[in-house]
Amino acid sequence: MSHTEDRTFAEFFAGIGLMRMGLERAGWRIAFANDIDEDKFRMYRDHFTNAAEFVLGDVHHLEASKVPTVALATASFPCNDLSLAGARKGLAGAQSSAFWGFVGILEKLGGRRPPLVLLENVTGFLTSHDGADFRDALLALNRLGYAVDAFIIDAAHFVPQSRRRLFVVGSRTPTASTLETSPAPLLSEARPRSLAEFIVGNPKIRWNIRRLPPLPERSLRVDDILETLSPSSGMWWKRERCDYLLGQMSPRHRAEADAMIQGKATSYGTVFRRVRNGKSMAELRTDGVAGCLRTPRGGSGRQIVVAAGRGNFAVRLLTPRECARLMGADDFTIQVSLNQALFGFGDAVCVPVLEWIAQRYLNLAWSEIHPLALASPRRSAPARRTQASERAPSRRAARPASRY
Questions:
Q1: What average pLDDT does this structure show over 302-320?
Q2: 196, 274, 342, 395: least CB-packed within 10 angstroms?
């Protein structure tokens, strides 16, 4: 069998399926998916139509016998207890402890354990409990036979959204990296000092560090992903609400908003509301990059679009389609409410980031480990076939200058 035919994967914590989209663009095929959230499964099913590979349920109660033999297992497990915005309970927290359910599945798979594993989470995973949680997770993978690598990628290299995420690749390979005592040789855009220092500071972890190519330069701005809405659209806020938003800005952000309003052409920015010193503040961003999409728990995750110029100031929330574009999932089928879409995309992975990781890392790792995988007797399990997309990350043409 060819390498391409064997590039199957099981997607744990699948959400709405954006991990799947990225991997399929790089030639991988879905064989299994699992998530506990019925609303996200509904979005997944709306887009992929035939979701026979999806098993809805708690990973802690999942039977390993239901997981087919695959080349790769992915886990974009809940970040709630690892995020700097959360309570920081770590891998012992009610949500992020789902990681141990994933590890339990790998353990139960035994000889059918996939040769490759990919983890994705917030960068707070690196510092949770002063690094103890990250260390425990990597040592757990070591005990299952995986040598590990780690890197951080900001989705802003691919789409106009600031979204830094920590990735771990585990490889069932007998080789391991010999590390220097200094972090300097590891330093790169994808391995900043904090991560490089963690790597060299944890020699008991079995590492398998791979040199990464330079990350691409993004060509898109927020302007390029915005929908053109009629001035009469109900999405636009009433004047009183717009004025209230301006009143929530600090003097610096208000000055930036005033400069936009006085501009000779329409320009665009995004706003997040954050609590500063016990007060809700509206923070304006005008560098052409949106803030990180988040789930709208408590309302703070609703990212706001502002369009201003020629004396006008218009405000609305991002649309579901704009959220999809910010995640690199331009053509994702959306048949749910704005709030549900925000939950779906806010908890997802950025598609072109995963495509890049698959093309620049996973495909190479699989081609190297593939003969080793074939040499180990593993019971075969049929994988369901889907049509893999061969598209490169989309590049949307610039849109008309004014959208209100």
A1: 95
A2: 395
Total count of domains within the chain: 2
- C-alpha distances in angstroms, 134 versus 76, 147, 155, 349, 354? 14, 14, 22, 20, 21
In contact, 267 and 308? CB cutoff 8 Å: yes
Residue 254: CA atoms inside 13 Å, Cβ hemisphere, count? 11
287 and 248, same domain (yes or no): yes
Kind of pairing between the strands at 116-122 and 72-75: parallel
Are 196 and 189 within 8 A, CB to CB?
A: no
Find, among 313, 252, 261, the residue nearest to 285 by Cα. 252
Q: Which residue has the higher pLDDT, 119 or 398?
A: 119
With beta carbons less than 8 A apart as the criterion, state whether 45 and 36 touch: no
The reply to whether the predicted model has a pTM over 0.85 is yes
Can you tell me the distance from the alpha carbon of 133 to that of 280, in angstroms, rounded to the nearest whole number?
32
Domain that residue 118 falls in: 3-217+348-375
Same domain (yes/no): 172, 54: yes
pLDDT band at 82 (very low <50, low <70, confident <90, very high): low
361: left (phi over 0), alpha (psi -120 to 50) or beta: alpha
Q: What is the pLDDT of residues 258-279, one digit of tens each?
A: 999 999 999 999 999 888 888 9
- pLDDT tens readout for residues 234-255: 999 999 999 999 999 999 999 9
Residue 267 lies in a domain: yes
In this predicted structure, what is the pLDDT of residue 93?
55
How far, rounded to the nearest angstrom, does the alpha carbon of residue 324 sit from its chain's CA centroid? 12
